[in-house]
Amino acid sequence: ASIGNFFRRSLRRSGRREGKEEASAAENNPSRVPPGKPGERSSVFYSAGQFFFEYLVVVSLKKMSDGRYEPKITYQFPKRENLLKGQKEEEERLLQAIPLFCFPDGNNWAPVTEFTSETFSFVLTNVDGSRKIGYCRRLLPSGRGIRLPEVFCIISCLGCFGLFSKILDEVEKRRQISMAVIYPFMQGLRESPFPAPGKTVTIKSFIPESGTELIELTRPVDAHLEHVEFQALLQRLSPHLILHIFASAVLERRLIFLAEELSVLSQCIHAVAALLYPFTWAHTYIPVVPECLLDTVCCPTPFMVGIQMRHLERVLDQPMEEALIVDLCKGKILRAVGDEEEILPIKLQNEMLTSLNRHNNNNNVHTSEQVNALVSEAFVQFFVRMVGHYASHIKWSKNGSGTFQERAFCKAIASKTNRKFVKKFVKTNMFSLFIEEAEKSRIPQEGK
């Protein structure tokens, strides 16, 4: 209960932040890119050479006196020592929260003989607005008879879902042999630098009876797509509905996604957030909401959350403000504001539909990376055509600071329908944060 209250307070605080405070709370996927420098990443989350991860924890289900099972951390690597008081308190809060997100489906568990392992991720927001990602593999330990699933969770501030999925493959392979084999692999990983985009790092790892293995971990060349799987979205929703969701997200509304599988929720929500690139969703963002935090949907501020389908009735009974509710199982919208069709300019909307339909029809032809690049390009082009002229409307002073001329910027748009959309978009936090960066991006020239 206490950790639930802590997270509610932290979420509401982050939801109320504006300006510079919200900038620090921006979700890592997609990261905001300084204007004029496409493809670069925020150094906070993506500096090559930093640690791959902060922790690996194992979360197991422990039977309580009332017969229910409660998730508890049973293994942690590395153990932290010599922490300052503030650091220790933050670490304790982090370690208390992790089990909730590893088993967000509540306490209704029972031992089983079979369980299909699943991979998903979650995001933790600290009180100061900074965020960490939890990459999870839920699996059934090797053995006979009935037993309980456990979760291996890697906590990192680096957003690269594909890379961490591969690391979790290696962890799962070693778990089937012995827990003792996992430690040296993770130690080797921790001692290796996080590679630059397109680069590979090789980890040496010894496995009994197999000898020394060389594991290669490569980052995608296009760094802004490394935490994204657009295929997951295209397989579950029609291009028409994807555009409705994008229109709601771009105006920073409240979005709720429903699915039973945790992997589907996290993949699809990360994909929706990535459609906003090069802008960033800077509000409450929980790809998988634990059962004890379902009242998050009552927040009056914007949010993007994923909830398991089993909780649908409880969600609908909450006193919510207007929200877009998306059923990822049946590929339909359960509740809408009603104007989603009219938010985006119709001509550009039709062009994006054509582009998405083309990618949808060629899913068997393109690789996952190609689909990611093609889909992202369609949405980036939308922003280029809508607001790509922003740099021409920043007035620079002699000391190099800039001031955005909003009125002239909007007036420069010839199309009335485009201008109508942009006048709404410029009022969003994501556009304000983007412009704040643009106003600071010019280096003063000497003698001027």
TrEMBL record:
GO molecular function term, any single one: guanyl-nucleotide exchange factor activity
InterPro entries: cDENN_dom (IPR001194), dDENN_dom (IPR005112), DENN_C (IPR043153), DENN_domain_containing_2 (IPR051942), Tripartite_DENN (IPR037516), uDENN_dom (IPR005113)
Limits of the UDENN domain: 54-445
UniProt keyword list: Guanine-nucleotide releasing factor
Region (Disordered) location: 1-39
Key word Disulfide bond present: no
Pfam family, one: uDENN
Official protein name in the record: DEN2D protein
Species assigned in the record: Caloenas nicobarica
